[in-house]
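LAB NOTEBOOK - FOLDING QUEUE
OPERATOR: T.R.
BATCH SIZE: 2
PURPOSE: Compare the predicted C-alpha cell outputs for two unrelated chains run back to back under identical settings.
PRIORITY: normal
REVIEWER: second-year student, initials M.K.

ITEM 1
FIELD SEQUENCE / FIELD STRUCTURE:
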Amino acid sequence: MFQNGADPPDIAAIIVAAGHGSRFGDTLPKQYHALLGRPVLAWTLDRVLGHERVRRGVLVVGSGHVERVRDLAADHPVEVIVGADTRQDSVALGLEALADQRPDLVLVHDGVRPNPSPAAIDRVIDALETVDGAIAAMPIVETIKRDADDGPLQTVDRSHLYGAQTPQGFRFPALLQAYRAATQTFTDDAALAVEHGLTVDLVEGNADNLKITRAEDLQRMARLMGGGETRVGSGYDVHRLGPGNHVVLCGVRIAHDGGLIGHSDADVGLHALTDALLGAIASGDIGSHFPPSDAKWKGAASDQFVTFARDRVLERGFRITHVDVTLICETPKIGPHRAAMVGRLEQLLGIEADRISVKATTSERLGFTGRGEGIAAQAVATITSVG
C-alpha cells in the first residue's frame, strides 16, 4: 500500500509538547522538568526520533518555548513549530507542516511519554500495512468500578478495556484528510480517525510507557527508567611534594616547581575519585586493587585506576550520574586547568560534562597543604542502578 512500493515506508513523527500541564503543579511545563538529569522532552525525542525507522519529525511546542527546545532538538531531524491551545489543534498544525512532504506514515506521540519501547513503535508501524491506523495500548488489569450517584457501586467488565498510549500511527494521507474534515473535539487521534471512517487497530504497548501528568509521576518514571537505587561514595587522597617540574591532577599535566611523590603518577584527584567509585559499590579501596607493593603499578598513569573502578560500577548494574572532585592546595592554581580536567574525566567516565564538578580550595596556609608540603583531594561519586 505504500507509495514507495517495496522500499521501506517514509515515516515521520509528530511530537506534541505544547501543553501547559496545569495538573503538574508548576509554572514550568512538565515536559521541561528533569528526568534522570535530562528534560523529559529530551528522552521523548531520543526514543521516537531516534528510532531507526523514523526519518524526520515535527516538534510542536508552546509559544515562548521555541528557543528552549532548540538545543534538545539539535541532534534530530525535526522542525520546531508553535502549537495551539488544544492538543487536537496542535496535531493539526503538525500534520499541515508535513503536508508538502507527504510521508507514507505518521506517528503522533505525546511529549510527556518519554519511554515508549522500540518494540512497541515497531508494532504500531507494522500494523499499518493492513489498517489505516494503529495505537499502542495496554489491557486494563485493575478491577474497574463505576460510582453511580443514584445507585449501588457497579463493577465494570474489563475484558475488552484498554488504556490507550502513544505513539498512535496512521497512514498520513488518511489522517490528514480526517483532521481537515474534523468539526468537533476528540480526546485522541484514534477517536477522530474512527469518527471519520478509518480502520484503527490496537497493538501491544509497553507497561513502562507512562504519561507524566503529576509530579509524583516523574519519580515513578525515574525508577522505571533505571533510577531505582542511588548510592554515594566518597574518597580522599594525599601525596607529598618533592623534586620535579610538574604534577598530574585529574589526568592533566601541569607545570610546577615540584612533583608529587607516589608509587604511581600520584594523581591525588584520580586516586580520590577511584576510591569514591569503589566505595559506592562497597568494593574496597584503591590500595586493595592496586597495592604499592606491586611493581606493575610503578609510575602508572592513574587513569587506569579510574577506568577499573568505572567498569566495576557498570558491571554491578549501576551508572555514574555525578562526580565532584575537590583539590586542596596553595599552588598550582587550578582554575586555568579546570576545563581540561573536566574534559579528561568526561572521557574516562563516559558521562556528560555537566555531571562532573572539579573545584579547588586552599587551607589558608594551615597544615601540610598550606605549607606547600603536599596536595590533597576529596571526591564524591553518585551512582544509580539501571536495572
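ITEM 2
FIELD SEQUENCE / FIELD STRUCTURE:
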Amino acid sequence: MDVVPRLAGDRDPSGVSALALGTATLGNLLREMTDEQAWAILEAAWEVGVRRFDTAPHYGLGLAERRLGEFLRTRPRDEYVVSTKVGRLLRPDRSWSGRLDVAEHYLVPARLHRVWDLGADGMRRSVEESLERMGLDRVDVVYLHDPERSGSSAAADETAAALVRLREEGAAREVGVASMTTSTLADFARTGLLDVLMVAGRHTLLDQSAEVQVFPACRRHGTRVVAAAVFNSGLLSDAEPGPRSLFDYEPAPADMVERVMRIGAVCRELGVPVTTAALQYPLRDPVVSHVVTGAAEPAHVRANAGSLSREVPGELWERLAHDGLVSPC
C-alpha cells in the first residue's frame, strides 16, 4: 500500500487501502465514549494501515472533529487523507438547559445547535471552523452533508457550483455530496460537477438502490463513489439480527431482518462471515473507490481491516444474486 493515499480517481479495492474510518462514533453516536477510548480506536486504525478518515461538524456537535484532529496532529500530514462536511454550522444555543443532543442520536451536551447554510459563504465558514476545531491546516475532501434535510430550494447544479468554487479557492482538493437519500445523490450525480459522492446505506447487501439510480450518472461523468454505512447502522453486523437491531438508525423492519437472515444462511454455507460480505460487496462495482466504516472499539477496526483482506469465493455473489438478494454484477 502506498504510504500517501491518493485522490482524483485512484482505486485499489483490496485490503486496508480500501478502508476509511468514519468518526460518527467518536462524537458519541448512540453511546458515550471517553477521549481515551476515541484515541485507542484511531490508534488501532493507524496501526492496521488505515490512512483515510472521515468526519463532520454534525458528529457530536464538533466533538468528533476535535478528537480526530488531536490524533492526526501527531501524524505526518502527507500520510493521510481527511474529509469533513459542510452545510451545518454550529452556533451557541442560548436556550440550552443541560439537555443532551439525543434528538440527533448524539450523547453530548447540546450547548450548540446546527444552523443550515448551503450558500458559498456558509460552506467557506464551515470549512474554516472545522479546520480550527481539528487544528489542521487543510482538508482533502469536502462533502455537502444531507442537503435534502435543509429545506433549501436551491437546485443541485447551483449548489454543486458553490462546492466547485470551494475547490477552486483551494479549500479542498475534491468536493462532493454525502447523503442517505438516493434521489438527492442522483440529482447531484447528474450535474457532472462533483469529484465524489458519499453514498450512505444505499449501496449495501440490503439496499442497492444507488446502483440503478445513481451509478449510471457517476460512470458517465467520471464521479467516484465512496460507500458508507455499509452495515446499515448495525443490522448487517449483528451476530443475532432481530427486532432490536438497527437499520438506518431505527428499529429494523421485519422484512429487512428476514432478508439479512437469508443472506446469513448463504454466507454460513460458504464459510464467509456476513460482515466480510457486507464490507466487500460495495467494492465489486468499479465506480466505488473505498468503503467507510465506524468503530465503537479498537477490535472493530482490526476486524474490518481483516475482513477486507479475506478472500471471498465468487460463488457467494452468484448465489446471493441467484436468490434475488443482491444485484448481479
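REVIEWER COMMENT (ITEM 2): The chain is about 35% helix and 15% strand.
FOLLOW-UP: none requested
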